[in-house]
Write the structure tokens for this entry.
Amino acid sequence: MSFDRALPRRAWHHLEPLHAVLYFAPEAFAEAARLGYRVDDRWPSYFAWRAAVLGRASSELTAATFYSFSPATVARYVPAVWETASPEEVLQARLRAVDAVYRGLFDGRLSGPEFEELVGLAQRAAESAVLAGRPLAAANAALAPAGEPHLALWQAVTVLREHRGDGHLTALSAVGLDPCEALVSFAAIDAAPAENFAGRGWTEEEWAAARERLAGRGWIDGEGRATDRGRAGRNEVERLTDQLAAGPWEALGAERTERFMELMVPYFFTVIGSGLLPAQSTLGIATVQAPTW
């Protein structure tokens, strides 16, 4: 039986909220505050939580691996975040934060045969990921195994999430979208309003210049909306992203991938129902057109 090429995207939809909740949950901000980070602005802890796996990363390395952030914005936080706490301290605190967040959200559902099955499937998929050219996925995969099953689940979905993300950057580069153009073209297909990307830190002048470049390539019209060529280009990005993300799920197999998603459903809906995540994600979940194969 052939592999369903829609499975990588569906699997990502199921796991992304369980990774991303770390960046928004009050328990995580409380842990960040104990480390000494400002929590009136979410970006210090975000950059620390996500980049700590790279060691004492420079602003240049962080901007390269995070891609869509303005280098000037990254430099506002990195490497200063390592003066507040070392990467090793951040990684320890990250697990404490995930522990608190998951216990608060999933009380009473972090044990039992089905949860153990879910953890095992997530780990099998993550262990199957080819990590060459995937810096954030590889760095997370190299961490010592977490002791408790719910922490092991978060580590596994994080490897899978970053594996897909690393591949997404490859896809953006393959179609010739630089970091600011990637956001402008994404907003142009109505995946998310342009103002939702303000946190990425691009100036009005940089955003306008990216629009002009895309208009010159025929990707957007004079109103900043995607043309047919622009929509086709964004669909190609998503097609390539799904293709590059398929490996772990092909290794797991269609039946076990479907079972993974089935077991994830109650946890997915708990996170979505918590109200912790933004109502309109800059990831464009459920807004990007389905890939055409």
Q: What stands out?
A: The chain has 15 helices and no strands. The CA atoms of residues 59 and 75 lie 5 Å apart. The mean pLDDT is 94.
